[in-house]
Sequence to fold (97 residues):
Amino acid sequence: MTEEHITMSQRELDRVGVIRQGILDLVRSHYADFGPTLACEKRVECHDHKISVETLRQWMIADGLRKPRARKQARIHQRRPRRPCRGETGSDRRLSP
Fold:
């Protein structure tokens, strides 16, 4: 089976852009200090617009309404020295006569 590549027409892309701009204007005017999850919940309750939280989060980041969450820096630990093995100590007297 082959996968079908789905493309959107320019008319559909324009419609999505208009919807996106309308939702972002609504968020800017009513829910500017809300996070994307609460803004989505309130929009569904009051304005009956339903899009996913992740889509709204990405739109808010792209529009400058929200900063992306900073990732944690990986902690760098200093390595401990290896413990000496029995044969490496040089005090193995069984080999010498």
Observations:
- The CA atoms of residues 61 and 69 lie 10 Å apart.
- Residues 10-30 form the longest helix (21 residues).
- The chain has a mean pLDDT of 78.
- The radius of gyration is 29 Å.
